[in-house]
Amino acid sequence: MSHLNTFQQLLYYYDHNGMYVLQQFLRHFLISIYGVLFAAIIGIPIGIFIARNHKLGNFVISIANVIQTIPSLALLSIIMIVMGLGVNTVIMTVFLYSLLPIIKNTYTGMRNVNANIIDSGRGMGMTNWQILYMVRLPLSLSIIMAGIRNALVLAIGITAIGAFVGAGGLGDIIIRGTNATNGGALILAGALPTALMSIITDLLLNLIEKWLQPTGMKKEA
Amino acid sequence: MSEQTPMVQFKDVTKIYKGKTPAVSHANITIKKGEFCCFIGTSGSGKTTLMRMINRMNSITSGEVFINGKNVNNLNPVDLRRKVGYVIQNNGLMPHMTIKENIVLVPKLLKWSQEKLDQKAKELIKLAELPESYLDRYPAELSGGQQQRIGVVRALAADQDLILMDEPFGALDPITRENLQDLVQRLQQKMGKTIVFVTHDMDEALKLATHIVIMNDGEVVQDDIPENILQNPANEFVENLIGEDRLAEAKHDTVQVKEIMLTTPVKINLGASLKEALSLMKQRNVDTLLVTDDDDHMKGYIRINRLEHRYHRASSVSDILESDIYTVKPTAYLRDTVDRILKRGSSYVPVVDDNNKLVGIVTRSALVTLVYNTIWGDTDPMSSAELSKHQKDQVTKGADDDHD
């Protein structure tokens, strides 16, 4: 093998382990998605709730900010102490990191809805619930989606590190490369799909975000 | 029946925001059905607060507010607000909904059927004097004035009898504002709605209101019809709010159209022949004739140049009738109409009563006399009766000058 250059080694690897890489790709993706999904399920209602109260909002967001400052490897290790090795630890970490962008964007989105519009909705006899789902949510959906996009891109990076606690995914291949002598090709074999996943996810969610922007607002820009 | 239940009644209403001086204190106001009531005052005078207590957008600290004899505190706020139209400054249209969805928002909350909603949307866009194609547009695609038109008709969507307007035209340019004021006035008179209108613009209040409530520092300073407020301002604050110019004009402002109109307009029956029309024109030395039917109902007018063009092809007056004519009511105040008559550039304006019967005309020269008297009135004071008599003389003279 040593007579091949790095690029040829990379192709050789994909040629022989294509299915394995694909499996890890999928696994990697799902771990990230699960973490973000749970964060969205918890984070969006929290964001909506704290938007009613400015003080509470600042408090909750500063807590989420603190979580964000812990280095991912450290957080992973701390959670590992509680939850042990395995996929769940990584999903938990992804979940915690995704909370901040999702809560923050939901909060901002809710707060940015023009007070005039809320007032006229209330004045026309909308219940609080109707104001939420007929006015606030449609108008802030694209901002919430931007938070999810940030979270998911971040999550793909964190999942790569998650291989250290035995969660599998593309990080596995990268770690194997760092442990091997002359493992450059292996590192690339893991890193390239990871980067690709990030970029594609970002582009795709960007499109969804634009699509979710209320029609009447798009034309304004 | 003088014992009719008032539309809105404030009984000793006070509103205190936490830890502040009262925003409204001990307000007692009665607004009858069909009134156009303006709350006017400087900013921070509590006028908006007072209005918002009607549909419980603001809670009431003490006292009672009644709508149609019912205490609003006993009504469900959501149901109450759906029954009361609400228009705010900057329109408050939902930017993510089409014009149609915006217009029928309240009926939709009331769960009307889809056909009924469609029908209502078409009906209302017509009231707003906008084309039906606008229904599928979004608010951002409309101009500010058009948006506020939608804002106004939206408040009528569920056949609300009472409409609250909070400085609805404050953000519009003067021309658009005037158009919208006209629209609101027309709608109010046509549909007999009761409107509570908050403004800080005295011109707007004087133009629209049939009842003015002047607020200062949370207290009702004066609560009366516009004429009385102009004639007898309660105190210095009211005088300042009205302004010296308007006070000086006030005595002339009470001149009604009927006082200066010429009561013998040159008119002709709808069925008369063109020959008769022509000879009448020659005899009276005029180039246009007002056309009425047998009962003196206003039908339109004919012009000499049109008569000349069609003389051999048309036989009766009705064939060359032009009906797009601007009229005024005899009870209208001149202050409201003088500008428009002068701007339109026609030499005279017919005066018709409520049954569209022609009762007279106002000529431009009569208006000139009036303006002259307004400006020179101070140096040459005349009693109202003398003034109008004097003007009538002028009118007769002026009418002939104008018609050739």
From TrEMBL, chain A:
Membrane topology per record: Multi-pass membrane protein
Subcellular location as annotated: Cell membrane; Membrane
Domain of life: Bacteria
Signal peptide (residue range): none
Keywords: Membrane, Transmembrane, Transmembrane helix, Transport
Sequence ranges assigned to domain ABC transmembrane type-1 in this UniProt record: 25-205
Any coiled-coil regions, as ranges: none
Keyword Ribonucleoprotein tagged: no
Transmembrane parts of this sequence: 29-51, 72-100, 153-175, 187-208
InterPro entries: ABC_transp_perm/SBD, MetI-like, MetI-like_sf
UniProt key word Transmembrane: yes
Family per similarity comment: Belongs to the binding-protein-dependent transport system permease family.
Protein name per UniProt: ABC transporter permease
Lineage of producing organism: Bacteria, Bacillati, Bacillota, Bacilli, Lactobacillales
